[in-house]
Amino acid sequence: MAKLDQGPPHYKKMLPPVILENYGKWKYHEIPSPGVLKHVGESGVLYSVRVGSPRLVSIDFVRDLCVVADEFCDGFLRFTTRNNVEFLVSDEAKLQPLLDSLEAKGYCVGGTGASISNIVHTQGWVHCHTPATDASGVVKAVMDDLYEYFNTMQLPAKLKMGLACCLNMCGAAHCSDIAIVGVHRTPPRINHDMIRKGTEIPSLVASCPTGAIRPDPKNKSVIVNNDKCMYCGNCYTMSAAMEILDPKNDGIAILIGGKTSNARSAPSFSRMVIPFLPNTAPRWPETTEAIRKILELWIANAHKGERVGEWVERIGWERFFSLAELPFSDMLIDDYIFSRETFRTSAAFKY
Amino acid sequence: MAKLDQGPPHYKKMLPPVILENYGKWKYHEIPSPGVLKHVGESGVLYSVRVGSPRLVSIDFVRDLCVVADEFCDGFLRFTTRNNVEFLVSDEAKLQPLLDSLEAKGYCVGGTGASISNIVHTQGWVHCHTPATDASGVVKAVMDDLYEYFNTMQLPAKLKMGLACCLNMCGAAHCSDIAIVGVHRTPPRINHDMIRKGTEIPSLVASCPTGAIRPDPKNKSVIVNNDKCMYCGNCYTMSAAMEILDPKNDGIAILIGGKTSNARSAPSFSRMVIPFLPNTAPRWPETTEAIRKILELWIANAHKGERVGEWVERIGWERFFSLAELPFSDMLIDDYIFSRETFRTSAAFKY
Amino acid sequence: MTEKKTPLLDELEKGKWPSFVTEIKRAAVKNAASAELLQVLEKSYEQRRGHWKHGGIVGVRGYGGGVIGRYVDEPQNFPNLAEFHTIRLLQPSGWFYNTKALRTVCDIWEKHGSGLTNMHGSTGDIILLGCKTESIQPIFDEFSEAGFDLGGSGSCLRTPNCCVGPGRCEHACYDTLEACYNITNEFMDELHRPMWPYKSKIKFSGCANDCTSSIARADCSVIGTWRDTLIIDQDAVKEYVADKFPIQVAVCDKCPTRCLKYNKETQELSIVGEDCTRCMHCINLMPKAIQPGKEKGATILIGGKSTIVQSAFMSWVIVPFMKMETEDDFEPFKDLMRRIWEWWDENGKSRERIGETIYRLGMTKFLKGIEVDPVPQMVFRPRANPYVFWNQDDLDSSGTALDGSKL
Amino acid sequence: MTEKKTPLLDELEKGKWPSFVTEIKRAAVKNAASAELLQVLEKSYEQRRGHWKHGGIVGVRGYGGGVIGRYVDEPQNFPNLAEFHTIRLLQPSGWFYNTKALRTVCDIWEKHGSGLTNMHGSTGDIILLGCKTESIQPIFDEFSEAGFDLGGSGSCLRTPNCCVGPGRCEHACYDTLEACYNITNEFMDELHRPMWPYKSKIKFSGCANDCTSSIARADCSVIGTWRDTLIIDQDAVKEYVADKFPIQVAVCDKCPTRCLKYNKETQELSIVGEDCTRCMHCINLMPKAIQPGKEKGATILIGGKSTIVQSAFMSWVIVPFMKMETEDDFEPFKDLMRRIWEWWDENGKSRERIGETIYRLGMTKFLKGIEVDPVPQMVFRPRANPYVFWNQDDLDSSGTALDGSKL
Ligand code: SRM
Ligand code: SRM
Ligand code: SRM
Ligand code: SRM
Ligand code: SF4
Ligand code: SF4
Ligand code: SF4
Ligand code: SF4
Ligand code: SF4
Ligand code: SF4
Ligand code: SF4
Ligand code: SF4
Question: A83: closest CA among A46, A114, A108?
Answer without folding.
Answer: A108
